[in-house]
Amino acid sequence: MWKIIADAVPQMVAAGIKYTIPIAIVSFAIGLIIALITALTRISARKGVLISIAKGVASFYVWLFRSTPLLVQLFIVFFGLPSLVIPGIFPHGIKLDPVVAGIITFSLNTGAYCAETIRAALLSIDSGQWEAAYAVGLPRRLVLREIIIPQALRTAVPPLSNSFISLVKDTSLAASITIAEMFQVSQQIAAENYQPLLMYSLVALLYAIVCTVLSWGQRYLEKVTSRYTANTQSTQL
Hints:
The chain is mainly α. Helices cover 80% and strands 0% of the residues. It is a multi-pass membrane protein.
């Protein structure tokens, strides 16, 4: 058994380093950008037809990706889009590399969930701070960057960190679209040595180790943002 473990663990770790972690990091980074844009669009106080359309699109996007299973989204992007033939643009359908399809799907899914987290964090800031900033003539962009977002960060860090940890675990679904990440490698090894319980337990342990390390990082970020918030409040007093 120990020989099997010694042979399997390096392969799983290599798959994690090559695919699982990079896909999670890239997808989360893109998802955060999407989430911030979506959240700011939904809380915008501006008026107009274009703004109303943008808010509607943002709300529909959040509803769609929060209301459908991630696995189904992966299948639509990877297996479904190749059948979407658009003459003159995509005459043979939209065929994506598995890694690209995975990153696109994970980014959009993460963006939808994180958008609600960021929106709630921004709305949690007292409206008097917005009014005070506008009263001294600060533009909205500067108010967000210098006053609102830094304070909202303290509220958003825990749920955003949880979203990233969940994303790392969700990357196991990438095995369904042929990406050789940790879980698929464990499946391949199990098919060779006929030890499914051992292999799946090993990969579960590896995911647990990664997520535990990320949880430590989450606690560190919470302490850092808490100190920033405390300093900000002291300055205001």
